[in-house]
Write a structure and sequence with these properties.
Layout (H helix, E strand, L loop, with lengths): L15 E3 L10 H11 L5 H17 L4 H15 L4 H16 L5 H12 L4 E8 H11 L3 E5 L1 E4 L2 E6 L7 H14 L7 E4 L5 H4 L4 E5 L3 H9 L4 E2 L5 H6 L1 H25 L2
Parallel strand pairs: 1-2, 1-6, 2-3, 6-7, 7-8
Antiparallel strand pairs: 4-5
Helix pairs in contact: 1-2, 1-4, 2-3, 2-11, 4-6
């Protein structure tokens, strides 16, 4: 935690809103989900490579790139099209338990727990699919989750979004509507994010916090005297290791391809 970080101090009845990717969880949740799909032979090597590159950049820079977000969204929507909602939820639960549970930032988890211990509602607000967000919510014992919704008809995904991606200004719109419905005073609410893309949400509440912030958000937070929490370690080492990380992603993809080739030969 950085020197200027403080514990949350809401001034009255309200809720706490947490982003997921790089705020609550290390890296992008949609990438971890894609990796889980690949390990189950439900994603191609090319798909995994695209996700791996986006994840490498995301971890090293701590920033979200629109092209990575769009690629993740399009790939995820293409995969779910034609699949049953219940089947995908079961798969999400397996993948979360196998590859995502141990990627929760301990420092952010402690911030969440402070709110829970104080009896305040805690909601996730994330661009990740709402089904995955709901699983994270249940596993961590949180109150609710707002996420990107994929359209489904008769229990089957169509491959289209139901509304907009829950990203940037859309988060603020959704939280404002939720607060109105629940009767929360937004000036008494808290919000946590790593990205300057979430400034509309952070500016909406009375107690905004920057967590593992990108450069723009860090500067804005310090200018406005917002608490800054940084739970990352060895960022310089990560930047130096970028070529190795990319090489590792390539090696992993080659290994996956080799395993599939051996399986194909064994079935002949």
């Amino acid at each position: 935690m950085s020197h200027d970080a403080v514990s949350p101090k809401p001034v009255g009845p309200g809720a706490a809103f947490f982003d997921v990717d790089n705020t609550l969880m290390r890296g992008a949740s949609i990438y971890h989900f894609a990796r889980g799909l690949a390990s189950r032979d439900l994603f191609t090597t090319r798909d995994l490579m695209r996700f791996a590159w986006g994840q490498t950049v995301f971890r090293v820079t701590g920033s979200e790139q629109p092209e990575h977000i769009n690629a993740a969204r399009e790939a995820a929507l293409a995969f779910v099209a034609g699949h049953g909602v219940d089947d995908l939820v079961t798969l999400c639960e397996e993948i979360y338990d196998d590859t995502m549970a141990d990627r929760i930032w301990e420092g952010t988890r402690a911030l969440v727990q402070e709110h829970l211990d104080a009896g305040r509602p805690v909601w996730l607000v994330t661009a990740t699919p709402v089904e995955l967000a709901q699983i994270i919510r249940r596993r961590l014992g949180l109150t609710g989750a707002l996420g990107t919704e994929a359209e489904c008809v008769d229990g089957v995904y169509t491959g289209r979004l139901n509304g907009d991606l829950m990203h940037g200004p859309a988060k603020a719109v959704a939280v404002r509507a939720l607060a109105r419905r629940e009767g929360w005073d937004l000036s008494a609410c808290s919000a946590y994010s790593d990205s300057s893309n979430d400034l509309p949400l952070l500016s909406l509440v009375g107690d905004p916090h920057a967590v593992n912030p990108d450069g723009d958000l860090r500067r804005y937070a310090r200018t406005h005297e917002w608490p800054v929490h940084d739970f990352r370690r060895h960022r310089a080492a990560l930047k130096v290791a970028l070529p190795a990380a990319v090489a590792g992603a390539v090696a992993g993809a080659v290994a996956v391809r080799a395993v599939r080739h051996r399986r194909a030969l064994s079935l002949r």
